[in-house]
Amino acid sequence: GYIGVQIDNISPRAQAVLKLPSLEGALVMGVVEGAPADKAGLKAYDVITKFDKSDVNSAEDLSDAVKDFAIGKKAKIEFFRNGKK
């Protein structure tokens, strides 16, 4: 699977700046133009907390969930943007 994002773990500084409730999730650092994430409307500094049925507590969790996801299938993604879920 591939969604087309560059991700990182959330630092305490990023948590404060982005007004996040915790350090859990995968911080989107960039989105590949034309990739599925771009088409879905994800943007830099969004924080992905759930991918399909998998909780995302870290960048590694998201990578694992995406790589194991069936190609061509649509996934629901939960994320924070501007301090709101």
Describe the structure.
By secondary structure, the protein is α+β, with helices and mostly antiparallel strands. The chain is 25% helix and 25% strand. Strands 1, 2, 3, 4 and 5 form a five-stranded antiparallel beta sheet that branches. The longest helix has 9 residues. The radius of gyration is 12 Å and the shape is globular. The relative contact order is 0.25. The mean pLDDT is 94.
Give a brief description.
This protein is 25% helix and 25% strand. The protein is of the alpha+beta class and 85 residues long.
**Span between termini:** 24 Å
| Mean pLDDT score | 94
Radius of gyration: 12 Å
Outline the biggest β-sheet: 5 strands, antiparallel
Assembly annotation: single chain
Unreliable stretches covering 5 or more consecutive residues: none
Beta strand %: 15-25%
Give the H and E element order.
Answer: EHEHEEHE
Question: Can you count the helices?
Answer: 3
Describe the global form. globular
DSSP E strands, number: 5
